[in-house]
Amino acid sequence: MEISLTLSPDEVHACRRAAVLLRALSTGLREIGTTQESEACAGYAVTLDRIVASGECCAVNADGKVDVEQAGFILEGIRDGLDNADLDEGSDFVQRDIERLNDVVFRYNAAAGKAAG
Q: Of 31, 45, 58, 60, whose CB is crowded by the most CB atoms within 10 A?
């Protein structure tokens, strides 16, 4: 099911920043030989890039929602690593992005629930 969502500027920026981190992670994973994980991260980044390119209003299907959700899970690990290393500013930035990605997932789920009825 494809749902049309209106994104806030903060959500768009969070998707953009998350895509940057996922592309970098994908590159690193590919370089150490973990192809499957590299491709998964690259796929999540592509979905986020598509959402960013759509602007304020975007159409998200169930697979796209899962990609956004998975991206948030990966960012949680990055946030935790930054926090554990006392890199607080980076941790705080990533935390805000996680919250915005979760907002997108929540709104998709709410709209899908209403549509299914």
A: 60
